[in-house]
Description:
Elements: E1 4-13, E2 16-26, E3 31-35, H1 42-50, E4 57-62, E5 65-66, E6 77-80, H2 92-102, H3 107-121, H4 136-148, E7 154-158, H5 166-183, E8 186-191, H6 194-200, E9 203-208, E10 211-216, H7 218-223, H8 228-233, E11 240-247, E12 252-257, E13 262-267, H9 270-275, E14 282-286, E15 291-294, E16 302-311, E17 315-322, E18 325-332, E19 342-347, E20 352-356
Parallel strand pairs: 3-8, 3-9, 6-7, 7-8
Antiparallel strand pairs: 1-2, 1-4, 4-5, 9-10, 11-12, 11-14, 12-13, 14-20, 15-19, 16-17, 16-19, 17-18
Helix pairs in contact: 2-3, 2-4, 3-4
Bound molecules: adenosine-5'-triphosphate.
Adenosine-5'-triphosphate binds next to strand 2 and helix 1.
Amino acid sequence: MAEIVLQDIEKYFGDNYVIRKLNLTIAHKEFVVLLGPSGCGKTTTLRAIAGLETVDTGDIRIDGKAVQDLRAADRDIAFVFQLFALYPHLTAYDNIAFPLRATRESKAEVETKVRQVAKALKIEHLLKQRPSALSGGDMQRVAIGRALVRRPKAMLMDEPIGALDAKLREDMRSELKRLHIENDSTTVYVTHDQVEAMSLADRIAIMNDGVLQQVGTPTEVYRYPANLFVAQFIGSPVMNILPATVRGEGPRSELVVGEGAAAFDFPGDLPRRLAGKQHQSLTVGVRPEGVIVFTEEAPGTIPVEAHIIEPLGAYDIVDFQIGGQLLRARTTSGMVKRIGETVWARLDEAQTHFFDTGSGDSLEIRLGEGHGAHQA
Ligand code: ATP
């Protein structure tokens, strides 16, 4: 078992309140990604778990045992940093073998364990090389090998592939996922890259300014963001965020965005459901794939004019201006042909999120069934 429990963790650097009342449980064998912008406290949290940083209040428990008073070396945790930190004068083999030799394992045991890890990481052919002869990706594989070889209770990784180029990062992402599936080690992984977080995590813990904003599976945080920060941090292109009001009675209502030029068709019970939620003014969020575009007028659509078209190959991102606001849609490639063209759009009610403008919190109103709406 290697469950990691963070309970009411707080950390100050002088007057700088870096972690605020953090509560998070990482289950045995789980892969949890700490995600957030630079300076939000991710690395400090990871270092506190590793024992490389003290905390001011709260408990850290690994396997049910409080570890605050244990030295880093006694916590049975391995750490992989962004910078490879290999011994330059040692071969890849000796770098991986280093932690085993430090605990005086027999030569035969060292040989078996290094070969096993090298096989899993597909670096058997590189074991005789020194780090200077390795590519960035291979150096990081060796560093991961050195962390894995002890079979630690938990792996902590701080932007381990952040220094690699885009293609290598993609390859390493799949490698890390496969390794986790094979090794089953409880993993806490820090990144500011939401794509990395979405692709690797069992659950993502999103932080901002030292405060945990939401913890959930990639699908949960994408589909049901708890607040405006999460809504805008997860997803690319970013979610459309628009000031809005709702009007109307009867079978249908209208969602008016921006300065009132555009009124989208919505279910009749929306005003009543909003009235039941404490909020001062309303902000709606719709991801570009939730803006459904039609080339001809269709029921419930409004005319919109294309301002910018970004062809991205598999699909296009088209910017419209409505009510003084920018509305971005994801359309079938080539659907909107030229700037200035008028097409028709509606908002998919199942993909429309409602937030209190003041607090930024989601009002947790979920309309429609499922999220499977596709472009016409
Ligand atoms: P990044 O992605 O840039 O590493 P992060 O989310 O990991 O950011 P931390 O490195 O945990 O953030 O830093 C959180 C805050 O704590 C920052 O404001 C940082 O300047 C401050 N900080 C971190 N380490 C120290 C330190 N040793 N002394 C003083 N302040 C520190």
